């Protein structure tokens, strides 16, 4: 691999909750090459959002180092864009003004700014809602505004935390295709957090499987399937089975004692 654009080195994160230490991340090591697409999957609470917050620079209190272009992350930077798990739109700003916030650090003329915002509103299919306020949108529409805001400044590194979770299946597939098209035009390095194994395989070059408490890497799976990927293909299906197995089988599985049914009338078992 060439010098990685993103490097997590022995990253650990512990929160304090009610005076007790809660170890959220342990010894997380991942190197990401420029232009690579990495998906992180894992059960709820295993530290996925925490990892993205650390990489985007919103939380600098952690162990180990995170480097971008070989320099330690010490705060937020415009080369890193994030779409949060909750959309975090400003309720008093219209759709176009919320998206325009993604351009605050860009040196653009007002006309260029308007054109860029309009192009991304169109991309997420909200042209008729450009002047609408967030409370006039559905959850999925609000999430699409957040996606447009994350993409509008063309960041070199894009962090996506469950960005398509609130979308219906058709819109979700459409947004996945668009994300791949945007990446094909501009080599954006992408880190996607998702619960959806199929989404991870459809989009990513590598899938990092986390296991919980504390969050740590269980396995890293390369997805060597050519694009456009066929969800119905055998290879796709096989990878999905492998990843689902990784996600659902704990290393230290304790078998549950078999239920004793000997003395119980069958009628009771049925209800
Ligand atoms: N600010 C915080 N203070 C204390 N504990 C926190 C904080 N943020 C996260 N945690 C804890 O860290 C762990 C990881 O949380 P995180 O939000 O990263 O999980 P996640 O993998 O994104 O889960 P989900 O899939 O449900 O979004 C959880 O146990 C959570 O309670
Ligand atoms: Mg999360």
From TrEMBL:
The keyword ATP-binding applies. Pfam families: ABC_tran (PF00005). The lineage of its organism: Bacteria, Pseudomonadati, Pseudomonadota, Gammaproteobacteria, Pseudomonadales. The gene is atsC. InterPro entries: AAA+_ATPase, ABC_transporter-like_ATP-bd, ABC_transporter-like_CS, ABC_transporter_ATP-bind, P-loop_NTPase. Residues 6-237 form the ABC transporter domain. It comes from Pseudomonas lundensis. Keywords: ATP-binding, Nucleotide-binding, Transport. This is ABC transporter ATP-binding protein. GO terms for molecular function: ATP binding; ATP hydrolysis activity. Belongs to the ABC transporter superfamily.
